[in-house]
Specification:
Helices cover about 40% and strands about 10% of the residues. It has 19 helices and 13 strands. The protein has helices spanning about 75-85, 85-90, 150-165, 175-200, 250-260, 275-285, 295, 315-330, 345-355, 360-365, 390-400, 405-410, 415, 445-460, 460-475, 480-495, 500-525, 530-545, 550-565, and strands at about 20-25, 35-40, 60-65, 100-105, 115-120, 130-135, 140-150, 230, 240, 265, 270, 370-375, 385-390. Helix 8 (about 315-330) runs antiparallel to helix 10 (about 360-365), helix 16 runs antiparallel to helix 17 (about 500-525) and helix 17 (about 500-525) runs antiparallel to helix 18 (about 530-545).
C-alpha cells in the first residue's frame, strides 16, 4: 500500500480512552521524558472549514462498503448497524454523513486496498469475527478497515430463539415464530456489524459500561459483548423481542469524541491535551466506566463489573433473574423446539442452549467474590482508587453463584429424558453436544457435571482463592476461602430428603466434582502457600466426615491418595462442555 500524504496529526494514547495503541520507543527523548511513544490508531478526518466548531463537513468522509455476497435481509442489517457510527461522529462535532456506509458496487473488488470493507464469509464451525485495520506505522493513521463476519452467527441466534420459544406446536412452522426469530437474528447482526466496525475505527472492547444504570433498550456500548435480553411474558413464555438494543452507545460517543474531534488553530489541525482530558473527565464524572479484555477474563480477573456476555447493573441479581428464565424455558422444553421431520435426538443439542443459559452470568457474578473494584487511573485524573468489593456484595454473589451447583437446578425431569433417544446415523455428536459417559444414550449425570464444572472452574480459580485469603486478612468482615468452599459443598449436597433417584445421583456426582475442583486447586502452581494449606485442611476434613458407606470410603481413599503424593496425583479434568449458548464466534473456541 502506498503511504499517505503528510498532514495527518497523530493523537496521543490514553489508557482511559478506549483505543488500540501504536507504541514505539524514541531513544532521543530528553532525560525525564518517557522513551515510550504511544498514539491511537484512527482514520484521517479534516474539516472543509477550519473555523467550524459544530456540524463540520469533512474534506473526505469515512466510507465503508458492505460485501454484496451477504444475502438479504442480512445485507441491509449490516448496512444499518454500521451506519449507527455516524451518530457518534455527529456527537463529536461532525456533520451528518461524515461516516458513510453503502453496498459495494458490483464492479468493485472487495480486496481493493482503497475500500473499507464489511466482508461476509462462510465457515462450517466456530471462528472469530474480526475488525482489523491497516495503519501507517509512523503515525497510527488507519488506511483500511476490514471487517470479517461469519454467516454462522445468524444461524446460532436463530437456534437460541427456537430453544427458548418452542415455536413448533402441533408440528407446524408458524410464520409468526419465524418472524420473531428472524427479528432477533437481525438485531444481533446490526449490533455485531457496529461492534466489528468499531474495531476498524481504532476502538478496543469496553466490558464495564453496561453496569451503569440504563433501560434494556438503551445501548451503553456496541463495543461490549451483549447477552440477549430475555424476559418472561405473563404466560411464562420467554420473550426475545428486545434481545439486543439499537443505535450507538453512550461510551461509543465518548470514545469517538476523544479520537476524532478536531482542534484547529490558524487553519491547521492541532492536538489539544486539555480538550482531550476534558472529554474523558466529563464522562468519568457521569459514571461512565471503561475496562477492556484482560479485566473481563473469567479466570484471574478481579473486576466485579467487566464481563463477557453479561447483562444488568448487578451481576448477582441478574443471575437470579436468568435462572428463573432458564427454569421456565426448561419447563416448556420438548419436541416443539425442533421442526417437523427433525430427528428427535437433535433435541439434545437444542437443550444445550437452554440448559447453559446461565453460564456467562454465573461467571460475571463469581467475579465479585474476591473482587476488586478499580479503574484505569492516571495521576491527577480525580478518579477513585481501587477498593475491595464490600463483604455484603460478595456474600450476595456467592449465594447466587452456588445455586448453579444445586442438584434441583441441574437435574433434568424424567419426562424430558424419555423423549431423548440415541442418535441415528448422520447425527453424530459434535463440540456443540453434551458429553456422555453412557455411549450412544443421553447422559443427564455428565450433563449436570459439565455445568457444575463451568461454575467450579471460575469459583475456584487459584487467583481468586489467593485474593480471598489476602482480602480477609486486610478486612476481617470479608468472606474467607473456607466460606466459599463450604457454600459450594452445601449447595452441591442439596436437600438430602428428596426421593427423586436421579436427583440423588446428580447430588453425589456434583459433590464429587466439588472435591475434584478442590484437588485441582490445591495442585495448582499459582496457589499461594497459605491458600493451599486452607484447601488441604478442608480436603482432610471432608475425608474425615465421610460416612461408613462404599461412596464415603471411595472419597476417603481418593483424598488420602492425594495427601500421600500430591506431586504425582492427577485430579479428574473438567467434563467437556459445549462452547456455550452458542451466542457467537468471538467468546469461545
Amino acid at each position: 500500500m502506498k503511504l499517505p500524504e503528510p498532514g495527518f496529526v497523530p493523537r496521543r494514547f490514553s489508557p482511559r480512552a478506549g483505543y488500540f495503541d501504536l507504541t514505539y520507543r524514541e531513544m532521543n527523548t530528553p532525560l525525564g521524558v518517557d522513551v515510550r511513544q504511544q498514539f491511537i490508531t484512527r482514520h484521517r478526518l479534516q474539516k472543509k472549514d477550519p473555523e467550524c466548531r459544530q456540524q463540520c463537513e469533512a474534506v473526505a468522509p469515512i466510507h465503508y462498503y458492505v460485501d454484496r455476497g451477504a444475502p438479504e435481509p442480512m445485507r441491509s442489517a449490516l448496512v444499518e448497524g454500521c451506519r449507527w457510527w455516524d451518530q457518534a461522529f455527529q456527537a463529536a462535532g461532525w456533520a451528518k454523513g461524515t461516516f458513510l456506509v453503502d453496498v459495494l458496487p458490483a464492479d468493485a473488488d472487495p480486496m481493493d486496498a482503497r475500500f473499507n470493507i464489511i466482508q461476509w464469509v462462510h465457515r462450517f464451525n466456530r471462528g472469530w469475527s474480526y475488525g482489523s485495520e491497516i495503519a501507517d506505522p509512523r503515525t497510527g493513521e488507519i488506511l483500511k478497515g476490514n471487517v470479517t463476519l461469519g454467516s454462522l452467527r445468524g444461524r446460532q441466534d436463530y437456534r437460541i430463539a427456537e430453544a427458548l420459544l418452542a415455536p413448533y406446536a402441533d408440528g407446524r412452522v408458524p410464520d409468526a415464530a419465524h418472524d420473531r426469530a428472524l427479528a432477533m437474528v437481525l438485531a444481533r447482526i446490526r449490533q455485531l456489524a457496529a461492534h466489528e466496525t468499531g474495531h476498524t475505527l481504532g476502538l478496543a472492547h469496553n466490558y464495564a459500561v453496561s453496569t451503569m444504570p440504563h433501560t434494556p433498550d438503551e445501548t451503553m456500548s456496541v463495543m461490549e459483548y451483549p447477552h440477549p435480553w430475555i424476559t418472561l411474558g405473563k404466560n411464562g413464555v420467554p420473550d426475545v423481542s428486545h434481545a439486543y438494543p439499537v443505535n450507538i452507545g453512550v461510551w461509543d460517543k465518548v470514545a469517538i469524541d476523544y479520537g476524532y474531534r478536531e482542534f484547529d488553530q490558524h487553519g491547521k489541525p492541532v492536538e489539544d491535551a486539555a480538550g482531550l482530558e476534558a472529554i474523558l473527565h466529563t464522562a468519568e464524572t457521569k459514571g461512565v466506566r471503561y475496562l477492556s479484555d484482560a479485566d473481563a477474563r473469567p479466570l484471574g480477573s478481579a473486576s466485579p463489573i467487566a464481563h463477557l456476555w453479561d447483562n444488568g447493573t448487578d451481576a448477582a441479581d441478574e443471575l437470579n433473574r436468568l435462572l428463573e428464565v432458564r427454569a421456565a424455558a426448561l419447563r416448556r422444553f420438548g419436541p416443539d423446539v425442533i421442526r417437523p421431520g427433525t430427528p428427535m435426538a437433535e433435541m439434545e443439542d437444542t437443550l444445550v442452549l437452554v440448559y447453559l443459559l446461565h453460564r456467562y452470568q454465573t461467571e460475571a457474578a463469581a467475579k465479585s467474590i474476591g473482587g476488586l473494584d478499580y479503574r484505569y487511573t492516571v495521576r491527577g485524573d480525580g478518579q477513585a482508587g481501587p477498593a475491595i468489593v464490600p463483604a455484603g456484595e460478595q456474600r450476595k454473589a456467592l449465594a447466587a453463584v452456588v445455586k448453579t451447583l444445586s442438584p434441583e437446578v441441574l437435574a433434568l425431569p424424567g419426562a424430558l429424558l424419555q423423549q431423548l433417544p440415541p442418535r441415528p446415523p448422520g447425527t453424530d455428536r459434535s463440540i456443540e453436544s453434551f458429553a456422555s459417559h453412557t455411549a450412544m444414550t443421553f447422559d443427564p449425570v455428565a450433563t449436570a457435571e459439565s455445568a457444575a464444572d463451568l461454575t467450579l472452574r471460575v469459583l475456584f480459580a487459584p487467583e481468586r482463592a489467593n485474593r480471598l485469603v489476602e482480602y480477609h486478612a486486610r478486612q476481617s468482615e470479608q468472606p474467607t476461602l473456607d466460606d466459599v468452599m463450604d457454600a459450594a459443598l452445601q449447595a452441591a449436597t442439596g436437600r438430602e430428603s428428596t426421593t427423586d433417584g436421579l436427583v440423588a445421583v446428580v447430588r453425589s456426582a456434583v459433590a464429587a466434582r466439588v472435591i475434584e475442583a478442590l484437588l485441582r486447586l490445591s495442585a495448582s502452581p499459582e496457589l499461594s502457600f497459605t491458600a493451599r494449606s486452607i484447601v488441604d485442611a478442608k480436603l482432610h476434613a471432608i475425608a474425615a466426615a465421610q460416612p461408613a458407606t462404599a461412596a464415603g470410603e471411595s472419597i476417603r481413599n481418593h483424598i488420602a491418595a492425594f495427601e500421600r503424593a500430591p506431586e504425582s496425583f492427577k485430579p479428574d479434568p473438567p467434563i467437556d462442555t459445549p462452547p456455550g449458548m452458542p451466542i457467537g464466534d468471538e467468546a469461545i473456541f
